[in-house]
Design goal:
By secondary structure, the chain is of the alpha/beta class. The radius of gyration is 21 Å and the shape is globular. The protein has ten helices and 15 strands. The strands form three sheets. Strands 3, 4, 5, 6, 7, 14 and 15 form a seven-stranded mixed sheet that branches. A six-stranded parallel sheet has the order 10-9-8-11-12-13, sandwiched between helices. It has a two-stranded antiparallel ribbon with strand order 1-2. Strand 1 and strand 2 (17-25) form a beta hairpin.
Length: 359
């Protein structure tokens, strides 16, 4: 009889509390496999909302990913497992499961865990030429690609990205491959601004710079056909800070497009939609990676988008953004540093958990 697989799991147990727990893995059923995790990426956006207890009540974390849904009906968020970027190797397969899966490297939307059981339908094979620490960016790169598709940048446009966390940086890297007039990024942390320039931004500014100053410096142009061309053409809000929408509005002009990629959880802010914002006929939309825009679904599906995502991973080489590698036992320290980036100097760009051979 095969010995049960011992597993280490990361649990969010309360506000600002995480712990590593051990247990045994259930054997795979028909159509399932056992995967040993090699690395998993921390999402400093959604995971920090979980860490801070800022997830809205009665709302699943992702309606399309069964393993991430929270039973909020109980009235309590905790304890729960969370995470959605695991890279691993298939160790064994259940009955009536294609044995060709064994030994394959795969990506799966799973919480942080040393081993997991999943149906083969929940696995995405990793191309041979993509290393583990690049493949772990699949979820966030898909988000960046989705944002570009939803914003539909046009040649010669002025584009702004508010927020240079990992999604913002990947979005900047993908946008930099377009023939834009300029690509301006904004972030509070100097290290992130430097990285955005290295990834192709034409300029990067501190978020404390007044929007009026940014307008005058980057977006003041002569009137064109009696329609003011002042303001950025396309603005992405991916900072995770609701008030940043006011900066986006202040940087916009007539018929500018604002794409909101942030998920704010329970955080809110008063948004100035009167005066020029109303007269400018702004187009404000939300972007969410779980689905494709209806305008694309006739020719695109998730499989085609993943093919594009792998291409972007090859080009951008996002593993260069990994600043910290930690074990699950070190998780509490990592999340606290992510929670207080200004106190820690904002030195964590992307943290991943690594799983050693003896786990």
């Amino acid at each position: 009889m095969t010995a049960p697989v011992r597993v280490q799991q990361l649990w969010f147990t309360g506000v600002h509390r995480v712990e590593c727990r051990e247990g045994e893995l259930a054997p795979p059923a028909a159509g399932e496999v056992v995967v040993k995790t090699r690395c998993s990426a921390i999402s400093a956006g959604t995971e920090l909302l979980v860490y801070r207890g800022k997830i809205p009540a009665q709302m699943t974390l992702d309606a399309t990913l069964d393993n991430l849904n929270t039973a909020a009906d109980s009235g309590s968020l905790y304890p729960l497992q969370y995470g959605y970027a695991c890279v691993g190797e298939v160790l064994s397969a259940g009955d009536n499961t294609d044995a060709a899966w064994i030994g394959r490297r795969v990506f799966s939307f799973q919480p942080h865990v040393s081993h997991f059981v999943a149906p083969v339908s929940a696995l995405i094979p990793i191309p041979d030429d993509v290393p583990d620490d690049a493949a772990v960016f699949l979820a966030n790169m898909e988000t960046a690609v989705n944002l570009v598709q939803d914003g539909a940048p046009v040649i010669g446009e002025n584009v702004v990205v508010l927020g240079q966390g990992i999604v913002g940086l990947l979005l900047t890297a993908v946008l930099a491959q377009h023939p834009l007039a300029q690509l301006l990024t904004l972030d509070a942390l100097p290290q992130r601004r430097l990285l955005s320039l290295e990834l192709g931004a034409s300029a990067s500014e501190d978020v404390v710079v007044p929007a009026a100053s940014l307008q005058a410096r980057y977006f003041s142009e002569a009137s064109r056909n009696d329609i003011k061309s002042n303001g950025a053409d396309l603005i992405y809000e991916v900072s995770g800070v609701p008030d940043a929408l006011n900066t986006a509005i202040a940087l916009s002009g007539f018929e500018s497009r604002i794409v909101i990629g942030s998920w704010y959880g329970t955080a809110t802010a008063a948004i100035a939609l009167g005066a020029e914002a109303h007269r400018n006929r702004l187009r404000i939309s939300t972007s969410q990676v779980s689905t494709l825009a209806s305008g694309l679904s006739g020719r695109w599906d998730k499989q085609r988008r993943f093919q594009t995502v792998w291409q972007m991973i090859r080009r951008v080489k996002p593993q260069q953004l990994i600043s910290h590698r930690a074990t699950l036992a070190e998780a509490a320290s990592v999340y606290q540093r992510l929670h207080e980036p200004h106190q820690s100097g904002g030195d964590i760009t992307q943290a991943i958990f690594v799983y050693h051979e003896d786990t």
